[in-house]
Design goal:
By secondary structure, the chain is α+β, with helices and mostly antiparallel strands. Helices cover 22% and strands 30% of the residues. It folds into three domains: 45 residues; 104 residues, Lipocalin; 167 residues, no CATH class. The chain has five helices and 18 strands. The chain has a nine-stranded antiparallel beta sheet with strand order 3-4-5-6-12-11-9-7-8. A hairpin with a 5-residue loop joins strand 5 and strand 6.
Length: 354
């Protein structure tokens, strides 16, 4: 039988070797992690090739503009990198399902108009057979235009003919306007889930010659607008063709409920993030060249034709015009509020216009 001295000796040796083994494991694990990171930095994994699963895509339709084309502008580049930054060689494109017309569409529109206090007599719009106007018999300057196919709509109160609503009115604060707009969407079941987490922008306006001009404070304001924007998709921002969000509400300070909302624009298109394809993109240098030669769409023009571009990045373009796919664009931003978009998908995967 071994003595207690021998037992203690072997126990201590076992403990020492166990501690050394643990230390060696930790050190080897650290070196392995560093080695893997260095390897991936030198030899990054290749992304799977784009699948172009939707076939050739329709070209992005930007809003019409009366301003001069970007080809008449003079561009200079002053980015942090000192050049056009490299962009991903491919990006996701998402399907945007559209609603179809049905036999109950007009009845649905009439029920919606009634809930909002309008009459139920639909007046067809000559320019678009899908859009009907509903009038408010008790407030004649108030109208609703409703698209029975898309269920998008516009509510307007013709404040230009009743500027008295801005006298002695109390324009809501930023927080009050934001809360009132959210409550309005929830009351009429108009708050899409995929807008949750997006920017909610609040802007003050004053009336100037029957139009609304942005101002910086509540004390100067006759009205306040709340814009709801989509959140990022896979860390990529979503931009629109105007300064407004797909859903925007303008409040006056009137205590009359029917004169309080002077504009309510709802131009929302759902995005199916589960139905997705990947597409090859232009290089950022190609997009930059396209912008300089008059391509793309200029969202905001500066006061002078000399443009200093300071930021270039990829985003998705959310249009007010019905489009089948959510496609990426290159965004160019510069001094004096300049902003422009250039479609990003490589041209060989875009349908050719006839």
């Amino acid at each position: 039988m071994s003595s207690l001295t021998e037992t203690a000796f072997y126990t201590r040796r076992t403990i020492n070797w166990s501690i050394l083994a643990v230390i060696a494991y930790v050190i080897l694990r650290m070196f392995w992690g560093v080695a893997v990171n260095v390897y991936l930095t030198i030899f990054p994994p290749q992304a799977p090739p784009p699948n172009h699963a939707f076939g050739n895509l329709p070209p992005i339709v930007f809003p019409p503009t009366s301003a001069s084309p970007s080809g008449q502008l003079i561009f200079q580049l002053q980015t942090i990198e000192g050049s056009v930054p490299n962009a991903s060689p491919s990006a996701n494109v998402y399907f945007m399902p559209k609603k179809g017309s049905n036999l109950l569409a007009l009845s649905t529109a009439q029920a919606f108009a009634k809930r909002l206090g309008f009459g139920t007599t639909p007046i067809p719009e000559p320019a678009n057979k899908n859009i009907y106007r509903f009038d408010d018999a008790t407030t004649q300057l108030r109208h609703l235009w409703y698209d029975i196919v898309t269920t998008n709509f516009v509510i307007q109160y013709d404040f230009q003919r009743d500027t008295g609503i801005f006298l002695n009115s109390k324009v809501p604060s930023l927080q009050e306007a934001r809360a009132e707009a959210r409550n309005l969407l929830q009351t009429y079941n108009l708050a899409p889930d995929d807008l949750t987490g997006g920017e909610v922008r609040v802007t003050y306006y004053r009336v100037s010659e029957s139009s609304l001009i942005p101002v910086t404070s509540q004390s100067q304001a006759d009205a306040v607008r709340v814009d709801f924007f989509r959140p990022k998709i896979a860390d990529t921002p979503i931009v629109t063709g105007t300064s407004e969000g797909p859903i925007s509400i303008v409040f006056s300070g009137s205590s009359n409920a029917k004169k309080r909302v002077i504009n309510f624009t709802y131009a929302y298109w759902p995005i199916d993030q589960q139905t997705v394809a990947t597409y090859a993109l232009k290089t950022s240098a190609q997009a930059w060249q396209e912008l300089q030669t008059g391509g793309g769409y200029v969202l905001k023009y500066p006061k002078t034709p000399l443009i200093t571009v300071r930021n270039i990045y990829l985003a998705y373009y959310d249009s007010t015009i019905p489009q089948t796919y959510l496609q990426p664009v290159f965004v160019f931003e510069g001094d004096d509020g300049f902003a422009a978009y250039v479609p990003a998908v490589s041209p060989e995967f875009i349908e050719q216009q006839q």
